[in-house]
């Protein structure tokens, strides 16, 4: 029927539709620089230098290192701002941040949902921005962002995203720095590890759902400027953290604790790399005592008992886990070196240390006491 509609009627209908869209978009004020891609779907973009990478080769090297934890190409740094922090089918995303490398630039694209009724169109536009079969880099994205966005795709009768890889940097951040900095929220990792201080316009994450709800009531997006900034900074921080984690895992650090934890991270993937990192951590000043302990245990496992014994004695002199270290030395003398006299000497040292500190070991006192007593009695009877 529309094929036979008079031209003046088509013009009037098109013009009316355009004016309605303009009227609706005029009602929404305070959005950052950008453009509408469709009704109630707004897009903005910012471009940044490729820092911290001088060239593509450095990036590919880091990609290779982090491939053991899920990094592949094409890399897509991804973060969502949502109407709630707990997930569930009632929570939806209203702002997506997508970061990608394009030659010598890092581009951050943001897709904003101006009204919940346009969620289906918003999801379609999101799929147009994200490359086919992406490899995501997120922060807690395995538990929150990706399950949430795929739930929204399914509820909208659309195919969920199937990434080729997913590097969740939260897990590596915890592995590398939790013992040192405690909280591994992205904001704390930024401050303590990356040295980034956000501007005062940033807003805390727990306020973001409330600010969006206020926008839906008023149509004034000026109160969301801090949310757009927050989301963009999350993406940029992910990009910087990607580099920092890769550098740490490659051993390019002078911090003994970082190198020690990097060795732990490699342990299940490449034992040789783990051992090399522990060796480096034990050679730095001050040496990482935990790394020396792990090296000693690994040498013992491999059958290099002389090297293990040397490291355990070094640890004992450093007053590190004196009871456990003395027991390990006693075991090597008894079982591998067949020297019952030295084994007894070190078992008695373990008992002496235990008796000196037993008020602080009340929960395990009886078990440990029985174990040491049994060891000493057996060695005395040899």
UniProtKB/TrEMBL annotation:
GO terms for molecular function: exonuclease activity; nucleic acid binding. The keyword Metal-binding does not apply. Signal peptide: none annotated. The keyword Metal-binding does not apply. Pfam families: RNase_H_2. Keywords: Exonuclease, Hydrolase, Nuclease. Coiled coil: none annotated. InterPro entries: RNaseH-like_sf (IPR012337), RNaseH_sf (IPR036397), TPR-like_helical_dom_sf (IPR011990), YprB_RNase_H-like_dom (IPR038720). This is Exonuclease. It comes from Acetomicrobium hydrogeniformans.
């Amino acid at each position: 029927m529309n094929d036979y509609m008079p031209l003046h009627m088509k013009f009037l209908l098109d013009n009316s539709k355009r004016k309605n869209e303009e009227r609706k978009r005029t009602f929404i004020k305070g959005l950052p620089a950008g453009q509408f891609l469709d009704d109630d779907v707004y897009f903005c973009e910012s471009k940044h230098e490729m820092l911290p990478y001088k060239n593509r080769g450095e990036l590919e090297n880091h990609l290779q290192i982090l491939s053991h934890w899920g990094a592949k190409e094409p890399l897509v740094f991804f973060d969502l701002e949502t109407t709630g922090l707990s997930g569930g089918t009632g929570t939806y995303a209203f702002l997506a941040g997508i970061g990608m490398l394009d030659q010598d630039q890092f581009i951050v694209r943001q897709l904003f949902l101006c009204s919940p009724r346009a969620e289906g169109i918003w999801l379609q536009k999101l799929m147009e921005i994200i490359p086919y079969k992406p490899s995501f880099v997120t922060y807690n994205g395995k538990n929150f962002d990706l399950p949430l966005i795929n739930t929204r795709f399914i509820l909208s009768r659309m195919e969920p995203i199937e990434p080729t890889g997913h590097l969740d940097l939260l897990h590596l951040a915890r592995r590398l720095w939790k013992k040192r900095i405690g909280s591994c929220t992205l904001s704390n990792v930024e401050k303590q590890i990356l040295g980034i201080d956000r501007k005062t316009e940033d807003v805390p994450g727990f306020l973001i759902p409330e600010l969006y709800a206020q926008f839906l009531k008023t149509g004034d997006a000026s109160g969301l400027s801090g949310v757009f900034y927050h989301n963009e900074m999350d993406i940029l921080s992910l990009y910087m953290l990607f580099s920092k984690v890769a550098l740490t895992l490659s051993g390019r650090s002078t911090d003994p604790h970082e190198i020690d934890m990097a060795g732990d991270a490699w342990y299940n993937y490449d034992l040789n790399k783990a051992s090399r990192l522990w060796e480096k951590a034990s050679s730095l000043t001050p040496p990482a005592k935990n790394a020396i302990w792990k090296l000693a245990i690994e040498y013992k496992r491999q059958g290099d008992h002389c090297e293990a014994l040397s490291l355990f004695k070094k640890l004992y002199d450093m007053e590190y886990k004196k009871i456990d270290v003395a027991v390990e030395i006693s075991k090597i003398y008894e079982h591998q070196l067949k020297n019952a006299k030295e084994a007894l000497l070190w078992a008695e040292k373990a008992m002496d240390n235990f008796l000196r500190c037993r008020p602080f070991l009340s929960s395990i006192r009886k078990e440990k006491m029985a174990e040491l007593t049994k060891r000493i009695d057996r060695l005395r009877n040899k």
